[in-house]
Amino acid sequence: MTLSSPLRHLAVIMDGNRRWAKARGLFSVEGHRQGVKALRSLVKECLDLGIGYLTAYAFSSENWKRTAKELDFLFELLNESAINELSSLSEQGVKVRFLGDLSVFKSNNLLESLGNLEKATQSNDRLVFNIALNYGAVAELTRAVNMISETLSEKEIHYLDENSFKKCLYTADIPDPDFIIRTGGKQRLSNYLLWQAAYSKLIFTDILWPDFNLDDIKSQLNLPAKAFAVNYAS
Prior knowledge:
Layout: E1 9-13, H1 17-23, H2 28-49, E2 53-60, H3 68-84, H4 86-91, E3 94-99, H5 110-121, E4 127-135, H6 137-151, H7 154-158, H8 162-166, E5 179-182, E6 201-204
Helix pairs in contact: 1-2, 2-3, 3-5
């Protein structure tokens, strides 16, 4: 069942995996595993509600400060998910795209898995699922400025407008987020979609990411009430 939604683009900052695990006496890796399940459920919710774009902050350029052990697990989990979720995402009509500098993954097989996922789903059109990976908004804006300086003449740069600048962003061909939701209780964007968030409505919730679903904040979203009567099977 698919419902028509006035919400075109939803972006999320998935915060709270480690705190979720700690509160249950588990290792942080279990929080990340549960976080993947929550993201899988959100993809289905977006499909059912007719939301065309979902962007998830999976790994920021600042996350490299974490321990080597946790980083190894995160990348292993990402590689595993890229392989295991491919068939399901394709069947559901989900197009997967990655936003960020993926060149850092050239030394392992993760880059190949991510590339295969993008390629296999590139023709799908029910939902564009953007995964921000090794992403930082300041770096994205710096990248855009460098692209402009390398490709445009001095005269073209002089008359550069907002639309022309946007074409140099990772999100050049998609609408800006209507809503940006951050779980976990913190009230900041943490270097996420700074240009794109100019007119987005921001929602901060204390719910930790592994426990999150759209029904928790339905009163804050411009969605038809009947949409939440849909049964989301996991």
